[in-house]
Amino acid sequence: MHEFLHFYVGTLLHFYASIYIVQVAPQKAYTVWVCFADGKVTVYDLKTYLDKGVFRKLKDISIFIKKCKIMNDTLAWDVGDNCEDFLILG
Q1: DSSP state of 60
Q2: Residue 11 has pLDDT above 80, yes or no
Q3: Mean pLDDT of 73-77
């Protein structure tokens, strides 16, 4: 089991249910480029979340970059052993 940090890109996924994430590209500035199936690319800045709850684990830039992934059509980080602890922002 793994603990995942989820960052939902909720507004697009909520209004465009058929639009899903096809690629994520984390950057050293604690931003993530998110590419959607419809061709739209959005940059999310996560610096404001790094001092909150389980997001503190992402202050380690190597974890931020290496553990970033797509999970269930959301932006997520695999950062531990417990899948019951996760944070969802929407």
Answers
A1: S
A2: no
A3: 82
**Token digits of residue 3:** 């603990």
Residue 6 belongs to what H/E stretch? strand 4-7
Question: Cα–Cα distances in Å, from 37 out to 30, 58, 72, 77?
Answer: 23, 26, 14, 20
- Length in residues, the chain: 90
Structural domains present in the chain: 4-89 (3.30.2020.10)
pTM for this predicted structure: 0.71
In order, the DSSP letters of 10-50 are HHHHHH-TT--EEEEEE-TTSEEEEEETTS-EEEEE-GGGT
